[in-house]
Amino acid sequence: MNFDRKSIERLISLNDAELSQIIREIAAEAGVDTSGVILGSAELSKLRAFLSLASADDITRLISGLGGNKNV
């Protein structure tokens, strides 16, 4: 997946339900097990804050650190 600034801005602008679904899909595609992950409003707010400042490399490192595939 390409994490350019435009796609990140689109993610940030989604409502909570849409963002949660997309994050789960991206994580599953990257091989991350999200079955025990809770994505409530507080978590999504923090995620939006991170995404607003993160580079594509930051996001790739985050996914990799969670056990995902770097090549997503």
Overview of this structure, please?
The chain is mainly α and 72 residues long. Helix content is 64%, strand content 0%. It has 4 helices and no strands. The protein has helices at 5-13, 16-29, 41-53, 56-65.
Uncertain segments are none
In angstroms, what is the radius of gyration? 11 Å
* Biggest sheet details: none
**Number of helical segments?**
4
List the helices and strands and how they pair.
Elements: H1 5-13, H2 16-29, H3 41-53, H4 56-65
Please sum up the structure shown.
The protein is mainly α.
Name a few traits of the molecule.
mainly alpha, 4 helices, 72 residues
